[in-house]
Design a protein that fits this description.
Blueprint (H helix, E strand, L loop, with lengths): L1 H9 L17 E3 L5 E3 H15 L17 H11 L4 H19 L14 E4 L6 H12 L3 E5 L14 H10 L4 H4 L3 E5 L20 H12 L2 E4 L13 E4 L4 E6 L4 H9 L28 H8 L4 H7 L3 H5 L3 E4 L5 H9 L5 H11 L3 E4 L1 H14 L4 H17 L7 E5 L1 H4 L9 E3 L12
Parallel strand pairs: 3-8, 3-9, 4-5, 5-8, 10-11
Antiparallel strand pairs: 1-2, 6-7, 11-12
Helix pairs in contact: 3-4, 3-5, 9-11, 13-15, 15-16
Length: 442
């Protein structure tokens, strides 16, 4: 007996998890020989189990009903990154807020089950569809993946299976399956999978209507077999069981020509809406819907889209029915593109100013230079997406020479530089106070 007491003093019983001795805790529960767990570790394990059952807070990156941002807070974040598109922002913020409120809710017995509402964004290229979805996902710290509908085909044909969209989301979540199942998938170019024609054909529409059919169950909620290595599925390959019930799908497309179906539905063969200035400069509010150059007319007409217009465009009714939230984005005019260049938190001009400052130089954009860049993007019909390629081309030669220039310079991007009538590396002046007299300006 004395030997046993001496042994316990030298090797006291300790919790196998936190290593605390019996004297340091209230109680120590014995398991298999030599294995113990203390009351503190039991309490901790119980709290973890409760958290998982109450909505998976760990899976949601710390989101709870208490700290879930409301639509107004979400919109303020979007305003920092996306110019304009006020209506689309409101629609998207409300839909995303309601989606995650649904996932975080405590289960009750009232018999009411909230269903998810997937989102469709309709707008021309470069209007901000992808940026809106990505910004919200980053702010909420939820997995986000982008897929291109043009690469998808029916199973068994050359191309990608629709399950590859889920694989991208898994990869974004570092293969944390429960977390991935609460992420956001953005499917771009969704209008490119419209039916190729209304007439019956002897060939299958494997990249059009066939893909829409393949996406139906995934959008609604199903358990899909995802090949962990991607590519085509085969019987011997192991699969990951991915439940899409809580995945929010946001699809986007330009739907070029849908305005014609809207106009036909409304019977607008002669009717006009307003907002153009007359010769005296007064705003008469007149807009010609048939004028191909009237951007505001196209925007207002596009905002009147209805499901039946999308069905006539070539989308199947079942597919449209699984995207109950539809919002349109405006085509950006000259003023909006100038704001895109300068206003957002991560605007292109701010990025290039930072690059120049890293080399000890400054960069300025004149008003006429910004106007010319915006007009060039409009001529290219590339929207905000085309602004970067224009600015990159302007900056190329100057950035090539920057590392070898020691004296601090201030470069100016004006209309002549944008039109390539003058090289940017020749349009500079020395920074003050290095040289204060005007004779130093070149």
């Amino acid at each position: 007996m004395a030997r046993s007491t001496e042994s316990q003093r030298q090797n006291p019983e300790r919790c196998s998890f936190c290593a605390k001795s019996r004297r340091q805790v209230e109680s120590l529960i014995a398991g298999p020989p030599g294995i113990f767990i203390c009351n503190e570790c039991v309490t901790l394990c119980n709290s973890i189990l409760v958290a998982e059952k109450s909505g998976g807070n760990n899976r949601m990156g710390g989101l709870t009903l208490a700290n879930l941002p409301n639509p107004l807070e979400l919109k303020k974040v979007l305003d920092e990154h996306v110019i304009g598109q006020e209506h689309a922002k409101r629609v998207l913020c409300v839909a995303v807020h309601n989606h995650y409120k649904r996932l975080l809710q405590q289960k009750d017995d009232d018999g009411v089950e909230l269903e998810k509402s997937n989102i469709m964004l309709i707008g021309p290229t470069g209007s901000g569809k992808t940026l809106l979805a990505r910004t919200l996902a980053n702010f909420l710290h939820v997995p986000f993946a982008i897929g291109d509908a043009t690469t998808l085909t029916e199973a068994g044909y050359v191309g990608e299976d629709v399950e590859n969209l889920l694989l991208k989301l898994l990869q974004a979540a570092d293969f944390d399956l429960p977390r991935a199942e609460m992420g956001i998938i953005f499917v771009d170019e969704i209008d490119k999978i419209h039916r190729t024609g209304s007439n019956v054909s002897i060939t299958r529409d494997v990249s059009g209507e066939g893909v829409q059919q393949s996406l139906l169950k995934m959008l609604e909620g199903t358990v899909a077999n995802v090949p962990p290595q991607g590519g085509r599925k085969h019987p011997e390959q192991p699969y990951i069981q991915f439940n899409t019930r809580n995945v929010l799908f946001v699809v986007g497309g330009a739907f070029v020509g849908v305005e014609d179906f809207i106009r036909t539905r409304l019977g607008q063969t002669t009717m006009r809406i307003t907002s153009r200035n007359d010769k005296s400069g007064a705003n008469t509010g007149h807009i010609d819907w048939h004028d191909p150059e009237d951007l505001h007319a196209r925007n207002r007409l596009r905002a009147m889209v209805e499901p039946e217009d999308l069905i006539k465009f070539g989308m199947i009714p079942e597919f449209i029915g699984r995207l109950p939230v539809v919002s349109t984005l405006d085509e950006l005019d000259e003023a909006a593109l100038i704001n895109v260049l300068t206003e957002p938190k991560n605007s292109i001009t701010k990025q290039f100013r930072k690059l120049f400052r890293m080399q000890g130089h400054e960069l300025e954009f004149s008003k006429d230079g910004l106007i010319e860049i915006a007009r060039m993007a409009i001529r290219r019909k590339s929207g905000a997406r085309g602004l970067r390629s224009i600015v990159e081309k302007i900056m190329l030669d100057a950035q090539f020479e920057l590392p070898g220039i020691k004296e601090p310079r201030c470069y100016l991007v004006d209309a002549e530089v944008v039109k390539a009538e003058k090289r940017l590396q020749e349009n500079w002046r020395l920074q003050a106070p290095a040289a204060k007299d005007e004779s130093a300006a070149a």
